[in-house]
Each structure stands twice: as C-alpha cells, then as structure tokens.
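F.,

This is the one I mentioned.
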C-alpha cells in the first residue's frame, strides 16, 4: 500500500539538476490490447447480425414476418453484452487478470464460512444502503425520468431485484477469498449497524466517491446506447453513399458507437475478480467540477453557456459542392475520432471517468498521456469551424471561437486534475516520466517550448487514501 502524495512541479531545474533520462522501455500497461480488440469484434459482429437480421432469418429458413432490422433498445443492450462478454473471456482466459496481486484476492485461501459471515453481512448492509441512496437520488431527480434517461431507469428497475439476489452469494463467496475484506463497504455497514464503534472514515469516503461515479455515469451511458445503435442499424446504405459528407458522418458514428459501448461495459464491470475495481476515485473537488461540466445535466456545451455552435454550421455546410475537399476533411475527422475511440478501447473493461483502475500505457497512450482529450478537441475545431458563421457577422464568429477555446480549456483542466490524482500511484509516475521524455507529443511540445522537462516532487496527501 502506498499513500497518495500531493503533486507539485518544479520547472526551473537546470540541465545539471535534471534526473537521468527515463528508460526508453515503456512501462507495462494494466490492460492488454487484445481486450479492446475482441470487444470491437464482438460489437461489430452483433451490429451486422442486427442490421441484416431479416436476410439472415431468410437464409436460415426462419419466418421473420414483416419485422425489420433488430434496432430496438433491447437489441442495443444485447449489443453491449456482445461487446463485453468477449472482453471478459479474454481478460480471464488469456490475460488471467484474476491472478493479479492487485485484485486483493488469494484464490488458494478458503476461510470457513463462520469466519467471514459477520463481515459479509455487514458489507451487504453497507452495499444495499448505498444502492438505496442511489435509488433515492434517481427517484428524487426528475431529470432521470425524462428523455433518454427514462430508458436507463426502466432498465435499472428491471435488473435491481436480480442484483440484490446475486449480491448475497457473491459477497459470501468473495469475502472467503479476500486478503482483507474489511473495505469501505464494510466500514459503511459497520458505521450503520454498530454506532459508536471505530470505523475508517477515509475508506467510507472512497466508497461513496466510487459509487457516485458509477451511479452517475452508468445511467448516462445506458441512456445514450440505444440512439446511435438504432440509427446505424436502420440507416440505408444508399443514404450513406450519397456523398462524402454522409459517408464521413456514418463512419464517425460507428466510431462513437465503439466508444460508447466499451465505456458502458467499463462502468458495469467494476469487479475485483476481474481486477477492474476502482482503486481510488478522484478526491479533488475541482476534478469533479471539471469532469461534470462536460456531461448532462451540468454540461456547459451543446445549449449551455459555452455553446460554440450558435449561428454556426458544420464542415458539410461550408464544403458543400467541393467533394474532393469534403472527402479529405471527412478522412481527417475520421482519423481524429478513431484515436478517440482507440483511447477508450485501450482501457478494455476498465474505462471510467474520475477513477484510477490501472495505468494504461499502450495504444494511443504511447504517444501522449491524454489522447482522447487531444483528438476530441481537435475534431471539434475541425468539424465545427467556429470562426465561420451563418449569421451575426464577425462578433458571432469571435464569440464562438472564444467559447470553443474555453471548452478546450476545460479539457486541459480535466487532464491536470486527473494527473494530480493519478500521480499518487508510483506506476503512473513511471509512465508520466517515460511519456515526458519518450512519447511523441510531450517531446514535441518540449522542443517547441525550449523549456526543461519538469521534475515531479511528491508529498503525502492524506485526502486520497491508499492505492492497492
């Protein structure tokens, strides 16, 4: 266990004071590339099956009736399973993640049932109370029962009884094998059922932060799964092939489908046996503010105060009639969004905002520490062209440009607050140091700025707690 440090950076070191260059060998990634690849293959296979279901049924001699493609919300949820199951199988049977020391599980250990019974019952009390608080929050916030979120709530209502049922044998089974089963869930349960007894307040705080992340983002991800899936299954290819703009939009939507599905799987599969549990959730208030500003209902863009598209139009409008240039533009946007989706794929079943679930160093993270943020923001600048407007003249153009610059500033802020959290882990420190001296983009900026590479100075920060 290592205590989380506070980060401070000194940039004034002379060349003589600079530490020896980091090893050219990139630190090992917590996830293999194969996890994301098999998830992609599973998702694409199901997408084809759903799209061509009538033709497949006819080929198999099945009476499909007048039903069309499988584009409904239940089919969309099946597509999440089609993406997630191969990733779980690869993680267990190929990467053997369940054997990692970081799981906190000793598979050779089988404590007697009586020895862990009280612990498991206490943890169940803490878990169910946490779920009750989340359910109460959902029920209170009217926002969750409108629009796309209504689907999330309906789905969670249906699975809730099964989760309650499965949690009992799961908890009893897992605690017998845990090296230290008295985690934050246990501490919260103990605080409820044994008032006055000493508990670990930091563990309870971590427990609530982790479940706050999971509750907020799982509902959001489930709400957006059906829409894009349905449009990709239903769209006619004649419309897609109509012009370079439509082809570009279709290809980009496929990439966003990959991103959404793998991210959804990541939020669902937060489990110690898969080594995908949350080590720590970001304890810094500013980190939460920076992240939540990018998601509904707190989102500052797309109709919010930082909406940079007012009286604007996207690249298809400005390049209409110039098919060659439009095709090139579509290709550039496709590559940028592909990097964004690739960054999500690299996490496999561990994707999550505001948490530390293992350090990722492969894929696009071999080129920059924040490939998703860099590629996403570049795609917004190139796709929206905020300095061109259909009304409002130069004033509106300047306003939109400044607003998009503010949006990019928020993502820079997010990156820094995330690094402040992650740099507590020596594994991320090693990756940070390697990337600063070997990754393409940090090296490029270092050369352009002519400034010496910063030194990391770490001091203990008691707010975060330990990292397993």
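My design for it:
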């Amino acid at each position: 266990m290592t205590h989380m440090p506070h980060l401070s950076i000194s940039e004034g070191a002379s060349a003589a004071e600079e530490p020896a260059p980091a090893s050219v060998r990139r630190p090992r990634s917590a996830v293999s590339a194969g996890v994301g690849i098999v998830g992609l293959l599973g998702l694409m296979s199901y997408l084809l099956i759903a799209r061509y279901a009538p033709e497949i049924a006819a080929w198999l001699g099945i009476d499909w009736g007048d039903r069309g493609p499988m584009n409904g919300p239940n089919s969309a949820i099946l597509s999440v399973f089609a993406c997630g199951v191969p990733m779980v199988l690869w993680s267990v049977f190929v990467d053997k993640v369940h054997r990692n020391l970081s799981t906190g599980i000793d598979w050779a250990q089988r404590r007697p049932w009586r020895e862990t019974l009280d612990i498991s019952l206490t943890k169940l009390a803490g878990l169910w109370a946490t779920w009750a608080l989340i359910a109460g929050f959902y029920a209170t916030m009217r926002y969750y029962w409108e629009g796309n979120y209504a689907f999330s709530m309906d789905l969670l209502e249906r699975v809730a009884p099964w989760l309650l049922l499965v949690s009992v044998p799961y908890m009893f089974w897992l605690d017998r094998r845990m090296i230290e089963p008295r985690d934050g869930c246990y501490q919260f349960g103990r605080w409820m059922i044994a008032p006055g007894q000493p508990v670990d307040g930091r563990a309870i705080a971590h427990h609530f932060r982790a479940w706050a992340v999971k509750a907020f983002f799982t509902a959001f991800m489930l709400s957006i799964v059906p829409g894009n899936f349905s449009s990709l299954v239903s769209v006619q290819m004649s419309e897609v092939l109509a012009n370079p703009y439509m082809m570009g939009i279709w290809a980009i939507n496929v990439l966003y489908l990959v991103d959404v599905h793998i991210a959804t799987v990541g939020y669902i599969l937060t489990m110690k046996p898969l080594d995908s549990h949350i080590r720590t959730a970001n304890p810094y208030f500013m980190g939460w503010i920076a992240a939540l500003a990018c998601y509904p209902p707190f989102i500052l863009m797309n109709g919010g105060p930082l909406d940079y598209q007012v009286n604007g139009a996207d690249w298809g409008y400005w390049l209409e009639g110039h098919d060659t240039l439009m095709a090139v533009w579509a290709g550039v946007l496709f590559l940028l969004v592909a990097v964004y989706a690739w960054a999500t794929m690299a996490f496999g079943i561990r994707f999550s905002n505001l948490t530390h679930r293992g350090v990722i160093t492969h894929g696009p993270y071999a080129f920059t520490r924040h490939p998703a943020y860099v590629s996403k923001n570049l795609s917004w600048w190139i796709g929206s062209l905020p300095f061109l407007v259909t009304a409002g003249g130069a004033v509106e153009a300047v306003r939109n440009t400044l607003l998009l610059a503010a949006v990019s500033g928020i993502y820079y802020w997010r990156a820094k607050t995330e690094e402040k959290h992650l740099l507590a882990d020596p594994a991320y420190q090693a990756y940070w140091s390697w990337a600063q001296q070997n990754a393409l983009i940090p090296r490029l900026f270092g050369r352009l700025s002519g400034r010496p590479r910063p030194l990391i100075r770490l001091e203990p920060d008691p707010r975060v707690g330990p990292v397993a």
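Strands lie at 2-3, 5-10, 280-281, 355-356, 455-460, 466-467.

Talk soon.
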